[in-house]
């Protein structure tokens, strides 16, 4: 145990009037008695959710390969025989490997501290007299270290997984009511989902810019498109794309008269904003239409043709905006949405497994493609991709901590799948190279 931690425990114990003779065996305990950790012990501790992943032999070999490469690159940089061009490449690779090595070393230090605390705790339990106050302090210390190890394990997995180049991008987010099921319940649910993401943007301190908002009767929503900017927006929202299902007794609308549980769907589309990417679009490939904004009537209806619809003729992709009274602003917003859709469709062709491709997210908007169900009568939200269940729908749909917790679970699941796929491909490549050799 470090001198700082030991002093802190002693001071806390003294302030609690519990400094007893049982401190003596702690002071005589030597770190060397703890023993050497094996790789599994270094990577995880009992009860950690990432334990099974980090115990995976292929993952361990991959980790050891990277650590070995880190040591090799560090050693090569010490050589004077390395040319300037080689040194630049080695430095670049060293930076890439440093996060893995640093996190692994932090895990080792934390696990060493945990072993020391557990040894002291065991000696206290085995003694003839128990210092309950000191045991309580040691247990508190143990829990703090275990929490830190859990975070470090998660970080270690993240460093082993190649990052998504789009993670720090802003997003174009669209919500659309289901076409075939649920009637007005779909439109009401779409408005609630829109409000949920607006609340989440506020919770994460992001900017939320509305491009279009087509409302419906009874306070519902047909379709809306927004631009969300801030820190790592795409990383947090990319798993929200897909079909969301609702089961509830409608509170308003024609369906509310039947007083039975109805089922409806809506779709969320999440596209990385390609504002930093130059997408060439030939003006000849565009058809631009203007029309009057649709509204609820009265003063809310625009009396000029300020709404803009842009059609990309070669692909049939359509984007429109009617949020502003300025035709120029609506045209710029519609063009941004169109570029985002074209950019994402391009990525979808290049990388088939990308879940945020527009066609994969929209599909037929049927219930069979659902990613999440919101069951209001049972006060339950279920994410079908990972089997995650949470209660308190009202709190969840406020877009705060409960939604953040679910997204964290989805991120961890995706990182696990990506790491296993990576080590599988690496192993197959090594086996192929060995066969050719």
From TrEMBL:
It holds the Pfam family RF-1. Residues 292-308 form the Prokaryotic-type class I peptide chain release factors domain. The keyword Protein biosynthesis applies. GO terms for biological process: mitochondrial translational termination. GO terms for cellular component: mitochondrion. GO terms for molecular function: translation release factor activity. Keywords: Protein biosynthesis. It comes from the Eukaryota. It comes from Pygocentrus nattereri (Red-bellied piranha). Belongs to the prokaryotic/mitochondrial release factor family. This is Prokaryotic-type class I peptide chain release factors domain-containing protein. The gene is MTRF1.
């Amino acid at each position: 145990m470090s001198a700082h931690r030991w002093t802190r425990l002693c001071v806390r114990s003294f302030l609690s009037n519990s400094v007893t003779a049982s401190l003596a065996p702690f002071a005589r305990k030597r770190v060397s008695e703890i023993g050497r950790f094996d790789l599994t012990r270094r990577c995880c501790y009992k009860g950690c959710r990432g334990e099974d992943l980090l115990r995976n032999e292929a993952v361990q070999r991959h980790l050891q390969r990277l650590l070995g490469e880190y040591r090799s690159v560090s050693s090569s940089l010490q050589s004077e025989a390395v040319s300037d061009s080689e040194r630049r490449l080695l430095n670049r690779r060293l930076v890439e490997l440093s996060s893995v090595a640093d996190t692994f070393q932090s895990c080792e230090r934390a696990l060493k501290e945990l072993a020391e605390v557990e040894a002291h705790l065991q000696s206290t339990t085995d003694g003839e007299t128990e210092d309950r106050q000191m045991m309580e302090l040691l247990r508190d210390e143990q829990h703090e270290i275990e929490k830190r190890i859990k975070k470090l394990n998660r970080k270690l997995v993240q460093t082993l997984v190649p990052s998504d180049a789009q993670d720090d991008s802003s997003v174009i987010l669209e919500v659309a009511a289901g076409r075939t099921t649920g009637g007005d319940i779909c439109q009401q649910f779409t408005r609630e989902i829109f409000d949920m993401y607006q609340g989440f943007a506020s919770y994460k301190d992001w900017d939320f810019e509305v491009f279009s908002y087509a409302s419906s009767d009874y306070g519902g929503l047909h379709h809306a498109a927004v631009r969300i900017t801030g820190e790592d927006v795409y990383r947090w929202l990319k798993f929200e794309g897909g079909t969301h299902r609702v089961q509830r007794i409608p509170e308003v609308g024609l369906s509310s008269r039947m007083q039975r549980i109805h089922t409806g769907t809506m779709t969320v589309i999440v596209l990385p904003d390609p504002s930093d990417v130059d997408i060439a679009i030939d003006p000849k490939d565009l058809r631009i239409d203007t029309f009057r904004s649709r509204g609820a009537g009265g003063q809310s209806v625009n009396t000029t043709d300020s709404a803009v619809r842009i059609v990309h003729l070669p692909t049939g992709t359509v984007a429109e905006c009617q949020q502003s009274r300025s035709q120029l602003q609506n045209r710029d917003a519609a063009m941004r949405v169109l570029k985002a859709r074209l950019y994402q469709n391009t990525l979808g062709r290049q990388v088939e497994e990308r879940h945020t491709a527009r066609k994969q997210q929209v599909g037929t908007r049927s219930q069979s493609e659902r990613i999440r169900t919101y069951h209001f009568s049972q006060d339950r939200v279920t994410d079908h991709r990972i089997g995650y269940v949470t209660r308190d729908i009202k709190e969840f749909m406020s877009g705060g901590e409960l939604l953040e917790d679910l997204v964290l679970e989805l991120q961890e699941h995706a990182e696990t799948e990506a790491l296993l796929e990576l080590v599988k491909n690496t192993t197959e490549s090594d086996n192929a190279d060995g066969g050719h050799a």
